[in-house]
Design brief:
Chain lengths: 385, 473
Amino acid sequence: MSEVHLHVDDRELASCVACGLCLPHCPTYRVTGEESASPRGRIAAMRAVEWEHRPLDGDFTTFMDLCVQCRACEAVCPSSVPFGRLMEGARETLVDETNYQPRRWRLAYATLGHHRLLLAGSTVLAAAQRVGLVPRRLGLGRVPLQRQPLRATGADVWLFTGCVMDAWQRPVHQAVIDVLGRGDIGVALPGKGADCCGALHVHAGLADGARRLARRVLASMPGDAPILVDSAGCGAALKDYGRLLDTDEARAFAARVFDVHEWLAQRVDRLPKSVRRLPYRVAVQDPCHLRHVQRTHQHVRTVLAPYADLVELDDEGLCCGAGGAYAATHPEMAGDLRERKVEAVRRTGASVVASANPGCIMHLQAAGLDVRHPLELIAEALRGG
Amino acid sequence: MDGALVADLQQALAPERVRVSPLELDLYARDAGIVAGRAEVVCFPLTPGEVQACVRVCRTHGRPFVPRGSGTGLAGGAVPIDDPVVIVTTKMTRILEVDADERVAWVEPGVLNLDLSRAVAHLGLHYAPDPSSQQSCSIGGNVATNSGGPHCLLYGVTSAHVLAVEVCLPDGSLVMLGGLDPEPAGYDLRGAFVGSEGTMGIATRIAVRLTPLPPAVRTLLLDFTSVESAAAAVSGIIAAGLVPAALEMMDAEITRAVEDFVHAGFPRDAAAVLLVEVDGLPGGVDAAASIVSDVGLAHGARTVRVAADEAERALLWKGRKSAFGAIARIAPNYYLHDAVVPRTRLVDVMTAVYDIAKRYDLVMMNVFHAGDGNLHPLIVFDRRADGVLERVMAAGEEIIQACVAAGGVLSGEHGIGLEKRDYMPLIFSADDLDAQARLRESFDPDGVANPQKVLPAGSRCGDLQRVPEGAWI
């Protein structure tokens, strides 16, 4: 292959001093102990391609592909190396120059942007699960057979509904609407086009597809009302639209986006205070894109604390392995990571886990844990247990 | 690529734990220092037996080997030279045994320093040596370089905390050096091994001393309008009869870089800050803290901030321990020295060091263990700029010479490795170097363990006297 250039900013690529402080925070390094599975090693590999003209070979692809894109390394990097952007750029290059993301995966990602098709497919999947046609080793949680329709309750805030979240975890959306309703906050639902935020496409290196989806999402929630997101991964993606689309409109849109806990944390006094606390202890699991990317994970605690006794995990937010589509594309590594998370949960002794991201919820549920979205727990407490 | 060597290594370990792809070898070409080499093969043993097997295969094929832990070393100690087999211990991460009563832990070499402290915290214990890279560096690597750290001022460096080391010698045999007895009989070969930088073999299991967590801690941040007054305060604190647990200095540039990362409230306009920690019994630490504060103010400290709680203390330390990693905020590369100078000469040496940098038109920063005079002058640069590396190396040599002239030594804690090797004759005579080479030879007569590190070529008097084969006299 002739000389290629990675779709990365050269100054950003140069901004790692290779100190190695990221290593223990990287989930794949924790499992393997290998440089090629660490942020420092991946950057060194990118540099080898970009600066030393190494080929975009199978090794390079494997090293890039094993990354969960949890971005824990970014949060701990003293030089704030924008690793997420570097990784997205490297994968974009792989998509352009190699057959990274084969046709069947591209099709799967494309489906996410066609919500009716996705819902239909999801129903077929749910039926197949029930008659035992879906292998358990895929680690897929139980997909719902039926979904109750959501109804808008006002126009104070938008609630972004998304793709898989809406297909598989619509009760979480309902819980958000219910909880906000108890604070007299009316929720509007997006118009046509809010099918998918595009996060998985960006992670896969399919930036063009992501941009198409982003433009439709942008148009689906006009006006000035805040846009609340109850999925950490989608929230991180929506907040990044300014960079993805590079327009003033997209930047203005992104400034309106809040994780639902982030927004509620400033308004906890609007929710009813005298409720019966939940009769069990809740371990808080921080989704990576809430903790390392949006850095709003403390707000989950602020919002949830009035309703339950919270306990912390001792793993410094090490990724559970869900990683968007990662659990499906890398079941072995995702399983190793999940085992570590399950152990961390067991050490707390808590019987219920709160997680603010659909991918983490389903991935951990598949390991037998009782995992709920924080807003579901609040809704339960507000209903009087 | 040596196919037979690779095949034997694959046989000895497992095919998937022996790597030869060019891109992967690139990732093991360097540590956190600035020099790079080239590995022939990288392998990942899981047990002491597999380490032995790797070493034996190397011997059969006449290959040198280079041990590597987390690769956070700052002197090129893990850089592969002479196309060696790199033996990586990062998959050997089990804490084998913790004896809380005897305060001893047996660990595999790949256990991370901070992971060990975390694992024993519930027993009220910790592993005291705390290199700034403690979250990432391995105990095996700490043993190899005899690592220090901020708290080694009071607690002593790695050597004081390693009781016994099981070593795979360069001939492939396993030996236990040292022991758990208070005074093991015979020569202290454990002491010889700690700090040998992989030139005497590979640590396969390590018994470390655990230290009780101090009952009370006070952490103070003092800021100064000149480096000189900060350095004078350091001497003043020691002269007042205190040995703080840690006594660290950061100059203006590094303080700003660190503050941009941690947002801990480090004063961005200070010429230098001191981070001082005292620990012990509650009454004692309050008295000690007020002495530190008084001495600081007497030497012109602008403010004295006492960390109010553990969170604030942790944030201040996070700042200090992130310093090297924050350098890329200024430039992508750094060349770091590790000289130790007498505390009384700190001000002179620092002035000289800044002057040298100015003469070479280089950016210089300092972040270091002031309490024991262990300087870390950092030259910050972008290696892609034309001719910069030559200037950096020339300035580095002058810095070393200035430190040695002030009565200093080359390395306080990072080791000599490859980067500082050729400066060894500045502080050791030919006889000294010969004696060290003989010690090394007694462990590694064939020179296969981490070759070309620590001692410069010709250290062994015999190297110069040996008559080449076939030479005519």
